[in-house]
Amino acid sequence: MYCTDCPDTLILPPGDHGQFARIPKRPGSTAALQFLLLSEHPYRHTSEDIVARVAGWREAVSEAEFPDFYWNMRARPHFGLEASPLVTLYGWAIHTDEQCRAALVDPASADFAALLSVTPMHITTVHAPHHA
């Protein structure tokens, strides 16, 4: 079983953390669907839940088929929220709590500054995407 859930983690976007995060504009994109889940329900879903739910929506998996889809997805290697376009392209940070539930954090916010002062916390900075 593969798992990308990490407790007490702050995933940082590449580059200058003082920039404002941007809201994805393309409806139905991975970024827009992740933004929907994370912004409307902070600290409700784990990384695994968000990645699976968005993949299921994009592949038109029915609610009845979703449990099998979820466990089949977890049975193979896959990326977690550290590869999210919200982090890599739109400048958001993602924080996970002690139960691996995720929330978006704007790097220009006071909440972000407060999270940086919390210890112990695992901090991961993603690299900017490379385009050919």
Q: Your description of this structure?
A:
With 132 residues, the protein is α+β, with helices and mostly antiparallel strands. The protein has one domain. Helix content is 33%, strand content 12%. The protein has 5 helices and 4 strands, in the order E-H-H-H-H-E-E-H-E. It has helices at 30-40, 47-58, 66-74, 85-88, 110-116, and strands at 9-12, 93-96, 102-105, 122-125. The chain has a 4-stranded mixed β-sheet with strand order 3-2-1-4. It is globular and about 40 Å long. The protein starts with 8 loop residues before the first strand and ends in a 7-residue tail after the last strand. The model has no long low-confidence stretch (mean pLDDT 83).
Strand adjacency order, main sheet: 3-2-1-4
Would you identify the regions where 5 or more consecutive residues have pLDDT less than 50? Answer: none
Question: What order do the helices and strands follow?
Answer: EHHHHEEHE
- End-to-end distance: 33 Å
Radius of gyration: 15 Å
Proportion of beta-strand residues: 5-15%
Count of the separate structural domains? 1
Q: How many strands?
A: 4
Q: Helix- and strand-based class?
A: alpha+beta
Q: What is the 3D shape?
A: globular
Mean pLDDT: 83
Question: Helicity, in percent?
Answer: 25-40%
Name the assembly state. Answer: single chain
